[in-house]
Amino acid sequence: MGSSNSHKKLRITNCKEIGQAREKLLEKYRISHGVIGEGAFGKVYKGTSIEDSQNKVAIKAFKKKQLFDDDVKSIESEIKVLCQLDHPNIIKYYESFADEGNMYIVTDYIKGQTLSKMLEKVSFALSETEAARVLYQLASALNHCHSKHIMHRDIKPANIMVDTKMHVTLIDFGLSNVFSKKKILRSACGTPSFMSPETITGSYNEKCDVWSFGILMYLLLTGRLPFSGETPRDLLSEALSCQLQLESSLWEDISKDAKNLIKKIISTDVKERYSIQKVLEHPWFDQVRDDSTEDSHSEAELRVLETLAGFTTENKFTKACMRVIASITKMPQDPAISQEFSKIDEKQNAIISKEELRNAFDKKALSLSDKEINAIIGDLNYSGEQHINYTEFCTASMDKYEVLSPKNCKTLFNYFDTDKDGVVTQKDIFLGLEKSGIFTKAQIKAIVKDSGISKAKAFELEEFEELVSF
């Protein structure tokens, strides 16, 4: 897995003795009885934060003795991938615990059901608008993955969670992989009915996800899969012929735009097959695109941008604490903030560029200089990249005292107080900021120095709350 620094960035607590990982896990989470899911390598349980009973998590548990070395590498690869992703439609990773015998991955607990279970309940019948709403969110999530050079490689209904409001969350990145223009993958993986022909034949890139997306789109619109072969070989033969029957009775009530998009993505010619970015831009999604282009939310959106612009006036320590809180807790979702983020994010990849941010302020007549725009990005993105991700945007756009609520301050206090002596010192803060994996050592030194905390000072919870909120 690499050096200890890489473990800190991946938020993995490594324990030397068998059983210690579970002990560390149980210090933070109460695990419910009963399995809520099973993956290829382990079981999934529902957990509750001991500090905050409202914070529900999912805990994947693995027994290493039941795994091959390649399986362990696959799990570690999934953690690396999840750490790079930050999107409202992708499962959020919190931390992991590991020892010689066991490994536990803690992620957000997603309410709702898998898309496969939902489809069974409605006899595989979704309206075209409902299908578009689900697929637009999925396409946005995939666009974020591909912008980070990550392919999912197992897009199917069982790996998509849907809640009662039709909010989509993409899960299970166990088969995901990093790609580049020079790197062509050759290891076949995925679920046969959703696998692209080139994945089966063994030479593919990120557009394998677009093919799977197309198969899913076909299923949501018709209730059937386009290819019905019983074996991977039969499916490959059908897929290579790619004779889509879009004029049959199944498609008579489905729009021309939907049929056009299907043809563009269920294509055996990988070069001609749409990228996920082009999928998002297709006219078929006009029916469900974010309605924040209307003026109904303009006042709330203006307030979001004003709060974002004001974030730079906070001191370094407060800003750093807000950023850590956002990474270790489940933040409340403010519709105005989500809508404004989506509106600014012109490429729908959950990454706001400097140009997109400037355009947003200009549209609201809040003209900011290059220096001010750079300051906002610099105060949020500690990696030096010239963009803002979803969590960074939400952190800076929320009311400061909502982020730094007594409950969140207590969570942060306990996060820093690793030795559990009831106080937080300068050293505790330094180690806690380092453990978050967000900051470099040089940045941490500057943050701690800016806080004015002396080495001798030890803060109890009430004093710590005052320090953070100052």
Automatic annotation (TrEMBL):
Binding of ATP, residues: 60
Catalysis: reaction(s): L-threonyl-[protein] + ATP = O-phospho-L-threonyl-[protein] + ADP + H(+); L-seryl-[protein] + ATP = O-phospho-L-seryl-[protein] + ADP + H(+)
Entry-linked InterPro entries: CDPK_Ser/Thr_kinases, EF-hand-dom_pair, EF_Hand_1_Ca_BS, EF_hand_dom, Kinase-like_dom_sf, Prot_kinase_dom, Protein_kinase_ATP_BS, Ser/Thr_kinase_AS
KW tRNA-binding (keyword) present: no
Family: Belongs to the protein kinase superfamily. Ser/Thr protein kinase family. CDPK subfamily.
Pfam family, one: EF-hand_7
Top-level EC class: transferase
Domain annotation EF-hand: ranges: 404-439
Name of this protein: non-specific serine/threonine protein kinase
Superkingdom, taxonomy of origin: Eukaryota
Species name: Euplotes crassus
EC number: 2.7.11.1
Family matches, as SUPFAM superfamilies: EF-hand, Protein kinase-like (PK-like)
GO molecular function: ATP binding; calcium ion binding; protein serine/threonine kinase activity
Assembly: Monomer.
Residue ranges constituting the Protein kinase domain according to the UniProt record: 30-285
Keywords per UniProt: ATP-binding, Calcium, Kinase, Metal-binding, Nucleotide-binding, Repeat, Serine/threonine-protein kinase, Transferase
Cofactor or coenzyme needed: Mg(2+)
